[in-house]
Automatic annotation (TrEMBL):
It comes from Cercospora beticola (Sugarbeet leaf spot fungus). It is found in: Mitochondrion. Belongs to the prokaryotic/mitochondrial release factor family. One of its GO terms (biological process) is mitochondrial translation. This is Putative peptide chain release factor-like protein.
């Protein structure tokens, strides 16, 4: 059996054109700024200890040392994690949390967590603004629909009052006794 060299095999697997990339959604992922890369913490800067967990979980959590405690030597930050029953998963989670805290100290408002929080805050503010705009528009439509009808009713009331005043004036003229000079009433 003939095998092609690895460079040809890789060329066949990877497309060589990248000019025709299309997004399938209305919001383009290419327009968003990428988040900064995560901080890599050197192993020599960390003291890692495994502890017995505490809290709910019964006898199993009291007997196994699956909780992880990391101490960052240069800053003195201590992180303890016991989210899962797996020691490996807890190690990953503790390192991620420690990296986030170190990044917040180093970069401040340009840290990944701060950028994510800002993005979430902006989305929430936009949704709130959209909701307020929607309800304001509904109120304006309701007020706009009610005002022409109430205006028509007022016009009808005004004309009926005017008509009643005219009719009342005619009736009072007719009901007043006329006094004649010859001495007979009405």
């Amino acid at each position: 059996m003939f095998r092609s060299p690895p460079c040809i095999r890789n060329a066949l697997l990877k497309p060589t054109f990248t000019c025709c990339i299309r997004t399938l959604s209305t919001s383009s992922a290419l327009l968003e700024k990428p988040l900064p890369p995560r901080i890599v913490i050197p192993e020599k800067d960390i003291i890692e200890t495994f502890l017995k967990g505490s809290g709910p979980g019964g006898q199993k959590i009291n007997k196994t040392s699956s909780a992880v405690q990391l101490k960052h030597l240069p800053t003195g930050i201590v992180v303890k994690n016991q989210e899962t029953r797996s020691r490996d998963q807890n190690r990953k989670n503790a390192r991620r949390i420690l990296g986030e805290r170190l990044e917040e100290i180093e970069k401040g408002p340009l840290a990944r967590t701060a950028l994510k929080a800002e993005k979430i805050r902006k989305k929430k503010a936009s949704a709130t603004k959209k909701s307020r705009r929607k309800y304001r528009q509904l109120e304006e439509q309701a007020a706009g629909a009610a005002s022409p009808e109430s205006g028509k009713e007022e016009r009808y009331e005004d004309t009926s009052k005017a008509h009643a005043a005219d009719v009342g004036a005619e009736q009072t003229k007719q009901s007043q006794p006329t006094v004649s000079t010859d001495g007979s009433n009405g």
